[in-house]
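To the wet lab folks,

You asked to see what we're planning to order before we commit. Fair enough. Below is the target structure as tokens, and below that is the sequence we designed to fit it. If anything looks off to you, flag it before the synthesis order goes out.
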């Protein structure tokens, strides 16, 4: 790979507007690839997410057998383990394939946020220029979406939001980056794309920008919107997440610089460290639950197969009974015929 290859990674937690933000990259001539995940009922306008990167990220997270890695970012040591397992080679092969067709590539998958220590090593080996866009959304709205789509408790969703955002901020330092708030994007997509354009140093295509702003972006993209009313569940996660959001929103609206964010980030890292072991325990419990669900599903499938076998056996038995009954009827008819002939 060559240095003129550029990669733009869209980061952020699930249901935080990463898809809408990624689609906006096309207004600057950024390619999103040709193996995109198809839209579905959960995201009718499309995910704009490359299935090859998605599959690799999922495989890496699932390779940690002791925990269900969906909350905490991997460590530098775990990133090295992934490299030793051959994932570095696989990642470079995918990247080389994508960049051979497009020098300017945009990639999105929320799981990048947890796997950044690994992917930074990939980008170093690839010698490609990397920029990060961090999609920000009110954590209460994200939690409301997760509760509807995944039946996930609000407090757990808030901790996941905190973990993802902290990982995004920590591992995107020293690289070109911008924070884009989802609600601000929906309100004024042109202005937000101009901010992205300035960060990336890429010119905007006026016609594509108009199409994106007035045709792609619409109110249907917002599934939940916090009305700022008092929330009765003001636990530690709620207070932590809302404080983070208000501060990061200041960065997203150009009222605070990344330099000014450093003091807050150090405080958040210290606070998060106190709860990290409990979140690790949650991942371990989730792994046990996932295994139990898999086992239950296998038993369920086995029971269904056995039930089908029993039904088929019953059907065979009934056919045999019918055959025997027909034989008895034939014999009785023959007996009656013989009796009649004797009388004659």
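Sequence we intend to order:
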């Amino acid at each position: 790979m060559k240095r003129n290859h550029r990669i733009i990674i869209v980061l952020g937690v699930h249901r935080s507007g990463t898809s809408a933000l990624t689609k906006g990259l096309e207004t600057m001539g950024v390619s999103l690839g040709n193996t995109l995940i198809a839209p579905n009922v959960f995201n009718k306008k499309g995910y704009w997410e490359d299935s090859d990167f998605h599959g690799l990220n999922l495989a890496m997270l699932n390779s940690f057998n002791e925990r269900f890695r969906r909350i905490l970012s991997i460590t530098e040591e775990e990133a090295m383990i992934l490299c030793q397992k051959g994932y570095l080679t696989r990642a470079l092969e995918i990247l080389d394939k994508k960049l051979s067709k497009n020098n300017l590539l945009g990639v999105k998958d929320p799981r990048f946020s947890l796997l950044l220590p690994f992917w930074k090593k990939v980008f170093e080996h690839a010698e490609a220029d990397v920029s990060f866009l961090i999609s920000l959304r009110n954590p209460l709205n994200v939690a409301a979406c997760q509760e509807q789509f995944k039946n996930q408790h609000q407090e757990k969703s808030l901790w996941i939001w905190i973990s993802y955002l902290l990982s995004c901020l920590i591992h995107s330092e020293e690289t070109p980056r911008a924070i884009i708030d989802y609600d601000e994007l929906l309100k004024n997509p042109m202005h937000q794309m101009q901010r992205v354009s300035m960060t990336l140093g890429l010119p905007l295509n006026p016609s594509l920008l108009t199409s994106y702003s007035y045709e792609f972006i619409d109110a249907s993209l917002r599934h939940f919107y916090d009305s700022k009313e008092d929330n009765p569940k003001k636990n530690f996660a709620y207070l932590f997440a809302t404080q983070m959001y208000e501060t990061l929103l200041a960065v997203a609206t150009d009222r605070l610089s990344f330099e000014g964010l450093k003091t807050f980030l150090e405080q958040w890292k210290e606070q998060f460290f106190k709860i990290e072991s409990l979140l690790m325990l949650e991942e371990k419990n989730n792994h046990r639950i996932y295994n139990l669900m898999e086992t239950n599903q296998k038993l369920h499938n086995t029971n269904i197969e056995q039930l089908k076998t029993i039904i088929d056996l019953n059907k065979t038995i009934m056919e045999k009974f019918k055959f025997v009954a027909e034989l008895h009827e034939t014999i009785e008819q023959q007996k009656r015929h013989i009796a009649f002939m004797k009388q004659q």
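Structural context that might help your review: Residues 6-295 form a domain with the Rossmann fold fold (CATH 3.40.50). The chain has one domain: 6-295.

Thanks,
Computational group
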